[in-house]
Design a protein that fits this description.
The structure is a homodimer. Helices cover about 25% and strands about 30% of the residues of chain A. Chain A is α/β, with parallel strands linked by helices. In chain A, helix 10 runs parallel beside helix 11.
Amino acid sequence: MEIVFLGTGSMVPTKERNHQSIFVSHNGEGLLFDCGEGTQRQLKIANIRLGKLSKIFITHWHGDHVLGLPGLLQTLGSSDYERRLEIYGPEGTKKRVEHLLKGFSFNIDFEHEIFEISETVLNFKDFSVVVKSLEHGVPCLGYAIIEHDKRKIKTNVIKRLGIPDGPLLGKLQENKEIKWNNIVVLPKDATFVVKGKKIAIVLDTMLCNGVYALAKDADVLISEASYTSELEEKAEEYNHLTAKQAALAASQSNVEKLVLTHLSQRYKTPEKVLEEASTIFKKTIIAHDFMKIKV
Amino acid sequence: MEIVFLGTGSMVPTKERNHQSIFVSHNGEGLLFDCGEGTQRQLKIANIRLGKLSKIFITHWHGDHVLGLPGLLQTLGSSDYERRLEIYGPEGTKKRVEHLLKGFSFNIDFEHEIFEISETVLNFKDFSVVVKSLEHGVPCLGYAIIEHDKRKIKTNVIKRLGIPDGPLLGKLQENKEIKWNNIVVLPKDATFVVKGKKIAIVLDTMLCNGVYALAKDADVLISEASYTSELEEKAEEYNHLTAKQAALAASQSNVEKLVLTHLSQRYKTPEKVLEEASTIFKKTIIAHDFMKIKV
């Protein structure tokens, strides 16, 4: 999987940070998490073809997370986009999209479907997306992409037994036993399991159970950190996380790497945010627009 | 007056060109013509304080001209903006804004008013805005800002007569006669008129009467030029101007300077567009994002 940060600011954009959007690619799938104003141009600058996009996940309907959606849909509709776009979001998503599309003159005539979801697990071909409720004063969801575990062939065993490439190996990878030269070969002897990677995306929330559920065992936890602790009251008033709180969640959840995003415009440079978080959780980095992470 | 081009592309933004928006400042007034997606960030990059903004003029409701509006209103509403914002646009503008604001979760609680207008002249303190209908398949308006003429004092006459600074000079500037040392001084003898400058803004239209009416005697004609002439059929199909047509309009309208904008994404560099126009109208330039022109 590859993560590309398209926007890492919060409500007010800065010269350096656009509104929220994160692109995650996995084989043929392109997942967009939130679509703040200007996201279609950020995709262009990041050299991500629109044809790659297959699913959009909305965390909540505050403007800085969604106002790039109508423009993106207009551009998809006027391009040679040939996929069926799926849009997932919390309750109210259908009505919001309907209003946005009535807000300007254009017919969206490509195939797309909108799903209003709550806590659930969405199963796709190569991965699932765990959906948890977050606490942000409006319906708000957090997401975790978890790759399916993969069963791989123990090549030394296969070589020793002389099993040829082909359907027999496929069966073993499907966790089925096979017969070869009158010997029964069990998957547990001829294969091993590679655990799928997990990326958790926690945008705009107070510290709550959903944060911990999503963060648990994540290879990468992407979390908002709108404020530092000296503005803890402000964070509470506006239902946001401080850098310290995000780091605490990471340190208590067996997280491999913490990436902080959604920084308030007041942090001209992110040193203070990084310092606060990394004191508690060392493997913290601060996202910047167009940063890429391979997972 | 100063013009700042905030976005000079068309429907699909490029790395170099954002969606349409033009900022014109005149004394204390800040006029925004169209507000494509990303305009609030372009304002930030151009170092234009949001507090300067007093009026927004919408040409038409295609997405690339308006989808920055909801985000801009959200940011104005959450900042210390203290003006009364006026939004002008063609029929349907109120309903469109209403839909856009219902498309996300936020209360716009600063003073603003929306005016649906058609062909008219809007009179403001230091300038008027002439509004003409254009032909673009949807209700579409073009605008011309015309400074009020200014009556200035002939200092040599005033010196000779010995009239002191103060209310007497003010009266003369208001085109009223005064008495000084028992002599009647007429405004025509003691003052002269400086003609106000004119900026015409013609975005998204076919060649039509409105274009010529706006362009007439303009110091600066800002015109869309979505295509070059080899795509004239496309321009006609989508109700747009070619560079040649814009230049012809300029050359027939006593225009001082032609500035082309709204270039299709297909023109990676603007040389071809410039060449076509400047063959017909020499004083043509191509706008780029953040270009400034003093008028």
